[in-house]
Design a protein that fits this description.
Elements (H helix, E strand, L loop, with lengths): L18 H13 L9 H7 L7 E4 L6 H8 L3 E6 L2 H10 L1 H5 L3 E5 L5 H7 L5 E7 L4 H5 L25 H7 L2 H12 L4 H14 L5 H12 L10 H11 L2 H15 E11 L2 H16 L3 E3 L9 H6 L7 E7 L1
Parallel strand pairs: 1-2, 1-4, 2-3, 4-5
Antiparallel strand pairs: 5-7, 6-7
Helix pairs in contact: 2-3, 9-10, 9-12, 10-11, 13-14
Bound molecules: S-adenosylmethionine.
Length: 324
């Protein structure tokens, strides 16, 4: 049976004792896997309408899959990522292009996109790409705390040099706040019960590891048959809260429109309904104000063929607009 990501756990759900077996299998599998397999690669880059010699911003450069394609089509890329491991990876990968002045990479948050483009003197920006969420590398790399399939410190920060760790949230938020995070970002139906268990358990000893949290969630979820592993949504919710992912996107979008040249395009690949809603709403408002033209009336989704080789693509939605 093919297991490509944690969501595929449900295929094993009838054998709940297999969590460690799956983790071992995934670890072995990912030893040979690439940093990140880009989602909707052709569709997103096609949507940017790449013109030779013009500058594009890859606001979430990750392992550089989309950047590679933009460069292949003749574009120059200013790549941003808040994760220094991603920056190290793309600096290695694009060493020649960096030397030739075709690619520039910088560690930073895309919510500072205006400041970053000014600081690095990026002229005339013809397109901006966001490929939101986390990379395979972040999920699989030991010690980052994103995965409930391994036992490691509850961290989940994309940028390891700043911000609040997931453990601090789990051990300090009130029952109310935890419930809200789990409901809002995870759409978890047992949010209140899980928050209650967390508050109860942490009175004895702080919850420090992914395993402690996953075991606790499993205990609460026992008896509730689920299609996916019970920790999936809670881990997703915590990741969004730790990295302030929705705030980052809301802050970046108006800046992106500002720095973009007329006829420039924005392509956004999202994996969460709240992110997609932020993009959709922002674009609708700007269309009403006659600032943009919406290229994708309905979001583009991955083909069955892509989903068959990359399960992460299942929830991806791509929206593209053009500045007027
Ligand atoms: C899905 S991966 C991108 C993969 C990339 N398109 C590729 O083909 O390899 C998302 C990346 O965005 C980065 N990221 C997420 N939020 C960010 C933010 N607010 N500012 C900068 N980088 C961010 C993550 O660290 C991660 O490396």
């Amino acid at each position: 049976m093919a297991i490509r990501c944690e969501r595929d756990w449900h295929k094993y759900f009838r054998k709940p004792m297999n969590r460690h077996k799956i983790a071992r299998k995934m670890k072995k599998m990912h030893k040979t896997q690439e940093f990140h397999r880009p989602v909707l690669l052709n569709e997103a880059v096609e949507g940017l309408n790449v013109t030779t010699g013009k500058w594009y911003i890859d606001a979430t450069i990750g392992g550089g899959g989309h950047t590679g394609e933009i460069v292949q089509r003749g574009g120059k890329v200013f790549g941003i990522d808040r994760d220094s491991q991603a920056i190290d990876e793309v600096t290695r990968r694009f060493a020649n292009e960096i030397e030739l002045g075709l690619v520039k990479v910088v560690k930073g948050n895309f919510s500072h996109i205006t400041k970053l483009t000014i600081k690095h003197s990026i002229p005339d920006i013809h397109g901006v790409l966001f490929d939101l969420g986390i990379s395979t590398h972040q999920l699989q790399k030991m010690g980052r705390g994103f995965s409930f399939l391994r036992d490691e410190p509850l961290d989940m920060r994309m940028s390891q040099s700043e911000g609040v760790k997931a453990a601090e949230i789990v051990n300090s938020y009130s029952w109310n706040d935890l419930t809200e995070v789990f409901q809002k970002y995870g759409e978890e139906v047992n949010a209140g019960q899980i928050a209650e268990k967390i508050v109860q358990v942490r009175k004895q000893k702080p919850i420090a590891s992914t395993k402690e949290l996953a075991d606790l969630i499993e205990r609460v979820a026992k008896g509730h048959q689920k299609r996916i592993h019970p920790a999936t949504k809670i881990f997703q919710a915590l990741r969004i809260e730790v990295n302030e992912e929705l705030h980052e996107l809301k802050t970046a979008l108006p800046q992106v429109l500002e720095v973009l040249s007329p006829k420039g395009r924005i392509a956004i690949i999202s994996f969460h309904s709240l992110e997609d809603r932020i993009a959709k709403q922002f674009f609708k408002n700007k269309e009403r104000e006659n600032q943009i033209r919406i290229i994708t009336k309905k979001p583009i989704v991955a083909t069955d063929n892509e989903i068959a080789v990359n399960a992460k693509a299942r929830s991806a939605k791509l929206r593209i607009i053009e500045k007027i």
